[in-house]
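Bifunctional protein FolD: structure tokens wanted.
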Amino acid sequence: MPAKIIDGKAFAATVRAQVAEHVTKLKDAHGITPGLAVVLVGEDPASQVYVRSKGKQTVEVGMKSVEHKLDAETSEADLLKVIDDLNNDPEIHGILVQLPLPKHLDEDLVINSIAPEKDVDGFHISNVGLLGTGQKSMVPCTPLGCLMMLRDHHGSLSGLDAVVIGRSNIVGKPMAQLLLGDSCTVTIAHSRTKDLADVVRRADIVVAAVGRPEMVPGDWIKPGATVIDVGINRLDAPEKGDGKTKLVGDVHYESCAAVAGAITPVPGGVGPMTIACLLANTVTACCRANGLPEPEGLTA
Ligand SMILES: NC(=O)C1=CN([C@@H]2O[C@H](COP(=O)(O)OP(=O)(O)OC[C@H]3O[C@@H](n4cnc5c(N)ncnc54)[C@H](OP(=O)(O)O)[C@@H]3O)[C@@H](O)[C@H]2O)C=CC1
Ligand SMILES: Nc1nc(=O)c2c([nH]1)NC[C@@H]1CN(c3ccc(C(=O)N[C@@H](CCC(=O)O)C(=O)O)cc3)C=[N+]21
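Answer:
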């Protein structure tokens, strides 16, 4: 039987609808509008597209959207000043600094200068520590979106074997923490893993977050397993015309879909869920800042 396609685009729309409903409540009952600030340093065209679509969706769910575009040569001190102002701005409940930053800026220092309760990316060391110890935190958007789709598909994840390929701080590690939190038996694989194929073949759940186009072939997938493809790789697509490109994930979609029980496509899988979870985290942060009940089902 061919795999069920997990429609991240449709799922993200339902998450955004829940967010919009909660925003309306906050406005009507309390006169509060959640605000999200996105800080972009430099002119990376891919990042600009992503920032634009975040801004548009933020406004669509009724929230305030602020964008700070700083030039690529911005000094660390100037960037920290922008973040400090946002930390102290009562109308801003969520702050996202688009990564990667230009080389002359210390990413850890910059991220850790964001007020943890406004850190809607969940990258601040306080949030990382809270997640690791199972306490209430801001949960990184991409892993949170993956978790929502997995829970929706499986119901309970308890006891399932999960393999996360990739150990980055922004995807692989927090993904593994969330799966562990849902009582999966978790393996984290990376570039030094011996016999990755064998490791992946044991998994009921495979999350690929590698950054290598179509690296995971179908014959690594246990029949019926769930495959979550985090990868976003833009490749040249001369077959579509001169200078055209296409997006592919980190798994080889056709061969994996032939054996998997369920699979997320690229585009239209994890990506849209990431943005929806960013909006969800912003509403959650706003509720926490105001001592109000949080929306249900939008956090881990
Ligand atoms: N859909 C979305 O919303 C998002 C998508 N992404 C995409 O997800 C992918 C991963 O992103 P990110 O985590 O930031 O990437 P990083 O480059 O930070 O991490 C990649 C990880 O993959 C591991 N790796 C590299 N090569 C291999 C290999 N041959 N075999 C096994 N493991 C390998 C690396 O191992 P080691 O640590 O040993 O070097 C590393 O842990 C990218 O395609 C990115 O574009 C990222 C964020 C959000
Ligand atoms: N501080 C920070 N937080 C992030 O969460 C963050 C970041 N920096 N830097 C870059 C990565 C990447 N990322 C994506 C989110 C959505 C899509 C997305 O919506 N993708 C669409 C396709 C979009 C297209 O066509 O280009 C899809 O997969 O369907 C992609 C990539 C978040 N990131």
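The longest helix spans residues 8-30. The chain has a mean pLDDT of 97.

Cheers.
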